Amino acid sequence: MHTFYKGAPDVVVLPTSAAETAAVVRLCRQARVPVVPRGSGTGLIGGAMAPRGGVMVAMTRMNRILEVDLPNRCATVEPGLINLWLSDATRAHGYFFAPDPSSQMVSSIGGNASTNAGGPHCLKYGITVNHVLGLQMATGAGELVWVGGKAHDRPGYDLPGVMVGAEGTFGVVTAVMVRLFHVPEGVKTLLASFSSIEDASETVSAIIADGIIPAALEMLDEAMVRAIEEGIHAGYPKGASAVLLIELDGPRAEIEAQARRIEEICRAHLALELRVSQNDAERALLWKGRKEAAGVIGRLTPNWLLQDAVVPRSRLPEIMREMLAISARHRLVFANVFHAGDGNLHPIICYDDRVPGELERAKQANEALMHACLAMGGSVTGEHGVGLDKAEKLPYQFAAADLNFMARLRRVFDPDTLMNPGKLLPDHPACAEGFRPAAALPGGSWV
Amino acid sequence: MVVSVQAARGALAEIVGSAHVVSEPAALEGLAVDGATPRWAARPGSVEEMSRLLALASSERWSVVPRGSGSCLDLGAPPARVDLLLDCRRLDAIVEHTPADMVASVGAGLSLAALGAALGRHRQRFPVDPVGGASRSVGGVLATGASGPLRFRYGQARDLLLGVRFVQADGSITWGGSKVVKSVTGYDVPKLLAGSLGTLGVIAEATLRLHPMPPASGSWLLSFRTPGAAAAFVGAMLDSTLQPERLVVANAGALRAAARPAAPAAVAVSVGSIAEAVRSQGSELVRMGREHGAMVSDVPEDVWLELGAALAGPVRLKLSGEPARLCHWLAEVERLAGEASVPVSALGDAGSGVLWLSLGRAAADGGWLAGAVGTLREALSGEGGNLVVERAPRSLKDHLDVWGPIQADSLAIMKRIKREFDPTGILNSGRFVGGA
């Protein structure tokens, strides 16, 4: 974890219905108390923390599937439903829920919608917003609203489109209607190892330039591979400087031909070793290391910072070189496991907070890397969100007029800025957000 | 600044140059927006000029209507008044295209045809093929939320809009989104702008996600003896592992308009992939089609243009209910139109359930349309569906609610958004939902 902010809510409320949730928000609005929505609490950006106290509304008890509508290829769920549970419930019928953040075994769909979560397969399938048809929200303005629904192309502004990813600053999501996708005919996973991170990065660009959009295209560097091998023995090639994990899915004829082409591209870029899964068991083994990477970080370092910035895909080789330079300059080890196909970096900056000054160096390295990404035309966050961690970084990417537009948009939904205050938007003059200190909860409150 | 009528032309010319201001009555007549003739038209050559024009309009409380190619100027309720027509066609540059990133930033006035030609040289494309064709401008397509058959595979234009530079009503130049394919930094402002019909700001530049041009493609037309058989085939396709790029239901009227062999209903499918996959998917869909009693023919890519042209009638409606009920709604429309002998061409996107209807002259001449629209809307309301009158003669539109009813809680939020960003209501005043 890399969120250094601390702070506990004054009260935690666990509603069991949308009506209860809306009543809590309305009460807090009357009392001018901050409301902090929370799903499974797996976010990496401090988005579900309560640094200013207030009422935390935890959605874990609202975890039912309300409807699966296969003819319309959609499902309506309560926000606390665990992401993977939806695919588990629909796979027997040939369907699945495509957004797959690495935390999908524990993260909630309401949280995914609030942060507009990504995942390895969003390279092909898109991020959460591309899968949300409608949602219900208890807004900071005191309403309980349903926007969107099964019928597409509703006249008017795209409210679900802009409410997804609002990170709880518009209100608390109380139900989500999502698309279901048909499972593809075939899936094929390839693993390729390289003697340099540049070769691996060039391979990523070459695959995309060839007109192939894999379902997932992930990269792991030497430090990460070593930790995975020591920790869980996933069978990754030892001694490689970089490993690419490439997944194709779709009609069999398409993925067979694409897999052959990718093998050629990998060889042309001097791949040391190439493995192609022949069945589900082999595929699962190739993914094992990637999926459990977070669990082995403890073998690398007592403490770590995680960056989530993005660069244009074509700048990958350059940013990887820059990263080596930053790591050397700050005398810190960086381990990498990231979504190379869409340029979304996840360097894990290792440090030991028992060593004086190391935390400061880690923070500086983190900052330097983000600036390098932005200088290449990138973005502050690719999939984790802004939250508390990166709110103050928004002015690096947006001008005052842009921030002002966002701040005004927020006030449409939350006129008193009580919803998840301090998250997503910076305390910047352009936002004129100015958090208003809350009163204490009124006596006799039933919460 | 208060500008007299006489001085207005000079003020506009000072911003964009005299050659780019239109103030002659005859020329302005030709630029009328759904019957409302603008007092002036100006063609900004940069986002800064657009900003100065809007700042001027804002201070003068001029009602402003943005336009791209002009193909959709009759979308929405007719404006009560147009002071300034903001013609975006000079903003037609490809600002940036990095083929390796499959991202391009382009001026709002660039036509889809010009964009397609430039991208085609790199075997890439912006896979959006709206009703109205490739002469439409990128900004217009985004602002009107237009889409076509390729949405089945690639989504709508909003799904491919990564970033947007726009000018707010007061002239503020604003940027939303990013220039990379994956970003969740801040609110998704591009989603808010897409489909907002220029009521929150005027799009000046768009950063688009591109896709590779498939190395091979094929199209098939499957004709069915009954609409029910076509519906069963569509269901089977959606439940299969085939991955077409387009899957469109066409009625007899659309086939007739496209000069295709007559049939009560047909399904048009295209597949884009590598050659072997196009062949294998093609043979599988032909097999499935025959199993459902279809007459199957390979058709050239032109079929998509021909079918699109079938929607060129004087009255066009866009109907959206539950996707699974697409063929039900098509049958309902045919029944209503048949009773009144109104010719109807219909194309439906099987993925989203959106159904476009082009009604012949009989609808435009009679009072039948308002009744049919009301009947359909009432029936659609049971499943949260909607019907938009996308095009109709002005004489009919004056008696129609072109957008239809909007759910009260959504409308309340939409009105607050409009009030926040265009408090004096100068942008496309009165044309959008709820009179926004």
What labels would you give this structure?
heterodimer, A: 447 residues, alpha+beta, 7-stranded antiparallel beta sheet, 5-stranded antiparallel beta sheet, 14 helices, 17 strands, 20% strand, globular, B: 436 residues, 8-stranded antiparallel beta sheet, 16 helices, 23% strand
Descriptive notes:
The complex is a heterodimer of chains A (447) and B (436). Chain A is of the alpha+beta class and 447 residues long. Chain A has 14 helices and 17 strands. Chain A has helices at residues 18-31, 83-90, 109-115, 122-125, 159-163, 197-209, 222-232, 252-268, 280-291, 293-300, 316-329, 358-375, 394-397, 400-413; strands spanning 11-13, 35-38, 55-58, 65-69, 74-77, 95-96, 132-139, 144-148, 171-179, 181-182, 186-194, 216-221, 242-250, 273-276, 303-306, 334-338, 347-351. In chain A, strands 14-11-13-12-16-17-15 form a 7-stranded antiparallel β-sheet, with helices on both faces. In chain A, a hairpin with a 4-residue loop joins strand 7 and strand 8. The longest helix of chain A is centred in the last third of the chain and has 18 residues, at 358-375. Chain B has 436 residues and is α+β, with helices and mostly antiparallel strands. In chain B, 34% of the residues lie in helices and 23% in strands. Chain B is built from 16 helices and 19 strands. Chain B has helices at residues 5-16, 25-29, 47-60, 112-120, 138-144, 151-154, 189-193, 227-238, 252-257, 275-291, 302-309, 326-339, 361-365, 368-381, 394-397, 408-421; strands at 21-22, 40-42, 64-67, 84-87, 94-98, 103-107, 124-125, 161-167, 173-177, 202-209, 211-212, 216-224, 246-251, 265-273, 295-299, 315-320, 344-349, 354-359, 386-391. In chain B, the strands form 4 sheets. An 8-stranded antiparallel β-sheet of chain B has the order 15-12-14-13-17-18-16-19, with helices on both faces. Chain B has a 5-stranded antiparallel β-sheet with strand order 5-6-10-8-9. Chain B has a 4-stranded mixed β-sheet with strand order 1-2-4-3. Chains A and B meet through strand 8, helix 5, helix 6, helix 8 and helix 14 of A and strand 9, helix 7, strand 11, helix 10 and helix 16 of B.
